[in-house]
Amino acid sequence: MPSRVTLNDVAREAGVSLATASRAINGNKNRKVREDIRERVLAAATRLHYTPDATAQAMARGATTTLGLVVHSITDPYFSAIASGVMVAAERRGLVVTLASTQSNANREVELVELLHSQRARSVIVVGGRRDDDVALAAMTDVLGRFRRAGNSTVLVGQPLLGTDTVTIDNTGPATQLARDLHGRGYQDVVVLAGPADHLTARERAGAFADAFRELGGTVDVAHSRFTRDGGHHAVRTVLRRYRPELVFAVNDVMALGALAGLTEAGLSVPHDVGLAGFDDIDGLQDVTPHLTTVHLPLHDIGIAATDLAFAAPAPDPRVVRVSGTVALRASTPGPRRAV
C-alpha cells in the first residue's frame, strides 16, 4: 500500500522549505508567500496528489470552515426549522455546520461553546430562550466573550441578555394579539399552559396572553409544566381533574400537541368541547386535525438571519435583530359552543 503523500514531499518537489509550502497551501493570517512561489507549490501538490490537512489549515488561518450551532433540542421542530435556515446560509458561504444539542442543560451549553472554541470554529450560533438564572447567564456571557476575543463571532437566538449579537423574537406582541382575537371569537375562560416559571420565553408569552385576556374581562387559569410535548400533556390532564375550560392556550406548539392528546384521552373533542391554540407554527401542523390556531414565526428565516448576522462586518456594540410573528386563526378555535 503506497504511503500517504506529506507536506514534506510537496516542499521537496517544489524546491521550497516546509514552512513556505505550509504557508502556500494552508494559508497564514500573518505571513504571505509570493504568488509565483505559491503557484509552484500548488502545482507540485497536484502532481503528487497531495490532500491538505484540515487541522493544519485551521491552525495556520486561526479558524476552520466550521460554523457551530448549539440548540436545546434536535427533536423539537422549532429548533430543527431554525437549524435548516442556518445550514442553508452556511452552505452559501462554503461552511460546514457542526450541530450540538444541550438537552436544555445550561452547564452543557457552556461546555459545547468551549469545545467549539477549542476546535477553532469560525462562529457559533446559540439557539434557545434563557432561564431566570444569574449564574447561568454570567457563565454564558463569559464563554461567548472569550470566543469573540479570539477573533470569531457569536450570535444568540433568544433574549438579548448575553452581551452578543442577537436575533430576538417578539413574544409579547403576537401573544397579546392572539388573546384579543380569541376573546373576539367568544372565548371567556382559558387555561394557559405556561411552561416552566423561570423560562423567559414561556414567561413572556404566557404573561402577555394572560394580561390581555384578563383586561378584556376573561377568566384565566395558569398551569406550569415542562416546555415539552409531555409537559403539555401532563398539564392539561391535571387541569381536567378540576374543571373543563372553554379554551387552552399552550405557549408553544409541541405543548399544544401534547395537550391535544390529553384532551382526546379524556374523551373531549377539539374544537367542539374545548378550543386549543399554540405558538410557533412548527412544521407538520398542516397534518394535525383540527388545524391548530397558533402564532406563525418565520423559523427558517430566523436561522438565515442569525447566520447573516454572524458574518456581518463587526460592530462596536452588540446588535439586535427583532423578529415578530403573525396570528394564524384556524379550525381549532372557531369559538365556544354554549347551551342556549
Automatic annotation (TrEMBL):
It comes from the Bacteria. GO terms for molecular function: DNA-binding transcription factor activity; transcription cis-regulatory region binding. The keyword Iron-sulfur does not apply. Keywords: DNA-binding, Transcription, Transcription regulation. Residues 5-61 form the HTH lacI-type domain. SMART domains: HTH_LACI. This is LacI family DNA-binding transcriptional regulator.
